[in-house]
């Protein structure tokens, strides 16, 4: 039997792509899911699918850029399922652009969702996990959190930050509170992520890169693997990319 059986997992950005596939993967192993994103209709549909196939999923419309809404999400999980075993801070945006295009609003959005959203997710579950002296926080970074390319300055900045925050969290919490922290860094994955790009000069290059993109179930399996490992084993980071992506 999977160690995920009856484990309560919160997934942000669960309304599409990697988050949606992660919900399906974890529910197939018996996890109890709390799905969060802004599009409630999509969450409802995914939760219905999970529940109809014998799993357990509840959902709550949540904007990860709101500290209060993230706190409410954690309270909801605890009230409904009595505990929180893990959170997958997956919600993210990737409106790539050249800095000289001065897409300041998009920079702000990326910083708010990709960095602050992860921090609020950590903050929402940390007191509960510290009290129980167990828990697992998985944060989604990117290959772009390891390397920068023209057009990825701000996005990469946010994903470098996710890696720094996760590593700091691991160092602070692993010894005493036994909380595990894992970074998952995907390469090109075919999801809705590229639809947020508005800089026409970037689109062509990104479309070319995404011709080799792998499907989101590959990342869902990686997340499941990290979560299923025994409590004394901490998977610190996994980079997963298409074989052909250099
Ligand atoms: P999608 O666009 O399919 O999913 C993004 C998810 O984030 C959606 O569920 C969206 O839901 C949610 N989201 C966006 N803004 C907010 C917000 N303010 N509050 C709550 N939820 C929000 O893309 P992916 O599945 O690809 O992205 C998932 C993660 O994977 C991201 O962090 C991304 O950076 C990362 N990643 C993806 C790669 C790829 O190639 N696809 C590569 C490397 C990393 P809603 O709009 O309903 O709120």
Automatic annotation (TrEMBL):
Pfam families, sorted: adh_short
InterPro entries: KR_dom (IPR057326), NAD(P)-bd_dom_sf (IPR036291), Sc_DH/Rdtase_CS (IPR020904), SDR_fam (IPR002347)
Record carries keyword Flavoprotein: no
Ketoreductase domain boundaries: 7-174
Keywords noted in UniProt: Oxidoreductase
One Gene Ontology term of the molecular function aspect: oxidoreductase activity, acting on the CH-OH group of donors, NAD or NADP as acceptor
Taxonomy, superkingdom: Bacteria
Family classification: Belongs to the short-chain dehydrogenases/reductases (SDR) family.
Record protein name field: Oxidoreductase
Protein source organism: Halobacillus mangrovi
